[in-house]
Amino acid sequence: MTAHASPAVLDVADLTVRFRTPTGLLTAVDQLSFSVSAGETLAIVGESGCGKSVTAMALLRLLRSPPAEIGGRHVLFEGQDLLRLRERALRNIRGNRIAMIFQDPLSALNPVLTVGDQIIETLKRHTGLRGAAAHRRAVELLDLVRIPEPARRASDYPHRFSGGMRQRAMIAIALAASPAVLIADEPTTALDVTVQAQILKLLNSLQRELGMALILISHDLGVVAETADRVLVMYAGRKVEERSVLDLFAGPLHPYTRALMRARPRPEELREFLDEIPGIVPSLADLPPGCAFAPRCSVAYEACSATRPALLPSGDGGAVACIRAPLAAGGVVA
Amino acid sequence: MSVSGVALPDARVLRYLGVRVLQVIPTILAIVVLNFFFLRLAPGDLAEVIAGEAGSASPEYMAILRQQFGLDQSIWVQFTKYLTELAQLNLGYSFRNSLPVLDLIVSRAPNTALLMLSSLLIAVVLGVLFGAISAQWRGKWPDGVISALSTVGFATPLFWVGLMLIVLFSVELRWLPAGGMQDLEHSYTGFAHMLDVARHMVLPVFSLAFFYIAIYTRLTRSAMLEVQELDFVRTARAKGLNPLPVTLRHVLRNALLPIVTMTGLQLGALLSGSVVIETVFAWPGMGRLAFDAVFQRDINLLLGVLFFSSFLVIVSNLVTDLVYALLDPRIDIR
């Protein structure tokens, strides 16, 4: 499926997440499949509410259940199925083999513990390091994420750190046990643009140094273009397109992907208004029977609303779920 | 690991304390003025009470008493005299007890402190424990049982709890003494004396603590449920920490902040609660002293007790602020 020869380190098959609500069962993630290999960056892209963050949380089963119900064929990681693993065994993987960083670094750190202590907590949990050795390692990790004066900063509380520094500290916590997979859920969304670029650069270089697989959740195609190897586009809880980053930006196949690209600001082409996608994201409570994007799609016709389009191979190692795709693709590539 | 943020620099603490003490002076002055004039509103005076007890309330005798007590002078003269003496830390003389007010307070205050602090300790420890259990098993049976009991505790008057405990444990079961602070038939010394006092303490301490256990249970429960939803708790779970460290280090540690505030604010209420309990259990403390002073119109004594109590409450609020700053590194002492 991918151009990468290396075997998948994490393989997700038919992941489904439902939420039990007073008004009924909502399907936030619908039979989502993807895999990611060591050293590879997979970006999961979509608008707010498309299920990308829920996917990230569901991989480590961090969603509270109830209301969340996580199901699927499997989430294979290092020979174990995370969907069926017992909670206790899963805790040995969380923060250790698979780590996570979150959108808002301002609230993701405990305000009453020093940054050093919060790194040491992970070290104590997953590595044999204790006492002075753990402290030394924590300082090394802060140095690794390019925090100046790491020895002094380790004893600071989070409120003394800027937003970018806090996200660096979060990365240091995530890297503490040398994970095989790092899930970054909108890691730069809450940060200033200049800081965003620094954090992305840092993530990229750390990934290369450590050979991790990186799952980058983002709504920002600019971020994705700079960072990802492969892109998975989600809409209303489903995968609508998955391509290598070069193929996707050269010729997006799904009308939704193309609409997303047109809605993106581009410096080479100054416009007064950005194109917007007409309509709103459909409520998960009443999705249309066919393609979920059909009501907002400019090239939809009757058949689109009749049956849900299957994922079809795009010929370049990618896949797209649109019955109008070949036609649409011709238009763009030409 | 590091405690550098916790150790407060002495000079700054002292300056902070200095400023706070200056702010307290107008408060104390207002309390003194209000106490003095409000207490004069009650009908009757010490001369009437004493003459009434002597059974010879002739106008001449009462005039002599009033002259002796200084009650014949105008209220303004009395007030000026009271203020001048207070400025020299002289709380006046209790004609009823034929002792200086300060001596009476000093002899009774430790008994009240023993009662209050034991109750407070038990209330905080048990309340936080029950609240934590309740929050952890939210919606399950332990939560139901604890919530029901805390509602009962919240709604039951202090004196009734005291009386019922006496009926059960002193009258019916004969396990514990019904009142007083020590056995009047024996005069124990050393360890036996401590044991004797402890036996007398059980019922009043638990009666007083009953209501506050309920308060701290409810407070801890709601604070923990609130903190549980915060992002850094999700971070802690994503680290792979076990549930107990997540609850203690991350949730409870942050939930304690409002509990500390509440404890400081409630010391005043606890003092008034101890007036009731001391009366029910014939506990020789300041509450009893104040209670008797009211009925005997021993204004000097009552003013002294009230002044001393308000002083205690102000000091405890100051201590609360300092403890809060110790617990929450985001609060800088200025």
UniProtKB/TrEMBL annotation, chain A:
GO terms for molecular function: ATP binding; ATP hydrolysis activity. InterPro entries: AAA+_ATPase, ABC_Ni/Peptide_Import, ABC_transporter-like_ATP-bd, ABC_transporter-like_CS, Oligopep_ABC_C, P-loop_NTPase. Pfam families: ABC_tran, oligo_HPY. One of its GO terms (cellular component) is plasma membrane. Signal peptide: none annotated. Its main location: membrane. The keyword Transport applies. It is a peripheral membrane protein. GO terms for biological process: peptide transport; transmembrane transport. Keywords: ATP-binding, Cell membrane, Membrane, Nucleotide-binding, Transport. Residues 10-261 form the ABC transporter domain. It is found in: Cell inner membrane. Gene3D superfamilies: P-loop containing nucleotide triphosphate hydrolases. It comes from the Bacteria. The keyword Membrane applies. Belongs to the ABC transporter superfamily. PANTHER family: DIPEPTIDE TRANSPORT ATP-BINDING PROTEIN DPPD, OLIGOPEPTIDE TRANSPORT ATP-BINDING PROTEIN APPD. This is ABC transporter ATP-binding protein.
TrEMBL record, chain B:
Keywords: Cell membrane, Membrane, Transmembrane, Transmembrane helix, Transport. The chain crosses the membrane at residues 21-39, 113-133, 145-171, 191-215, 255-281, 301-327. Its main location: membrane. Gene3D superfamilies: MetI-like. GO terms for cellular component: plasma membrane. It is a multi-pass membrane protein. It is found in: Cell membrane. Belongs to the binding-protein-dependent transport system permease family. This is ABC transporter permease. The lineage of its organism: Bacteria, Pseudomonadati, Pseudomonadota, Alphaproteobacteria, Hyphomicrobiales.
